[in-house]
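Subject line: Sequence and fold of a protein, written as structure tokens
Enclosed: The protein record, placed directly beneath this head.
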Amino acid sequence: MASPAPQSAPIVTLAEVEAAARRIEGAVMHTPTLLSRTLSEVTGATVYVKFENLQFTAAYKERGALNKLLLMDEATRSRGVIAASAGNHAQAVAYHGRRLGVPVTIVMPTATPTIKVMQTEGHGAQIVLHGDSFDDAYTHALRLEQERGLTFVHPFDDPQVIAGQGTVALEMLADAPEIDTLIVPIGGGGLVSGVGIATRALRPDIEIIGVQTEFYPSMYCRISGKELPSAGDTIAEGIAVKKPGATTAEIIRGVVDDILLVPERDIETAVSLYLQIEKTVAEGAGASGLAALLSHRERFAGRNVGLILTGGNIDTRLLATVLLRDLARSGRMARLRIQLQDVPGALFRVVRLFDEHRVNIIEVYHQRVFTTLPAKDTSIEIECEARDADQLKALVDGLGQAGFNVQPVEIH
């Protein structure tokens, strides 16, 4: 990307961000920005993390939603608001709407996980399930806005929402003035727009880097002029936006130095590292800043990097899968496919080697029928747990030396 160009007529100003901070004070948590010594050792940068997953709804979205609601007059609030979202924005609008006595309607795609529907309903919102995608839900929400006389609260393409999100930067720069680089996740662009506006005004020397998943590079393409598809299953669904905002794109051109794309594998690793090292839960989008740091270590080596852990709303089953996959990649867990003769004592010989190498067996899968092996042979798959990759390698070598054909089952 080219160097940021100054804006002739700012869409959102520092004064508006500072006013938003005063407006939401006390109702939204001033989350801590803490130095992570271990993440610093892992990445080669000095890493500061802002824990927005500690908000009541576990995400930064409360800031922009509340600022928008507080700027409405009483008549507008009494008629009610509507939003389209299947995630953090929905909960933010619903939670603060109930606090302020504002009727809230949320339109969600029909495939929205039940837990997210229940959490949003739990904040007092009326839920409307419509369409197969966010775009379907968004279009329907705009229709209901007109039919019912409601006010639409956009998740990112709204100056008042952007100003609210910018309060993240005010807190970070006050709490960790050493920061010289900010890495900010981008979906629709509301957070990086607000953070960028505040940072450029207060600390123009700071480098601002946006991050998108490789599956959804929509803002990257809009800014760079490149054409890449935005599709696929990502654990960073919070930034899986096919159509970025027009307002946010204009701001990003003026305040963001670069946008990096990160692969799913690094996002999974980042989620796992946050839990292992910081003992905190990060959703995929929330961990994408750390993923960028992992993907581009040389670029950030020696820098004082600020990361925004934007949210912690991740399905527990998905979190378990991510953690287990990370164990497999690190060599602490594996599945070994072993060919052996289908005779008495053959399995015992295999198990004895596991015992000798002190590798724990978790599951054993025996396959005699659905295989291309000779009828007198069999294939077993053993899921096992080792201390580290070296211990696992010693076991595989030992099995090979004993005459067994061993193939680790790889994950990507």
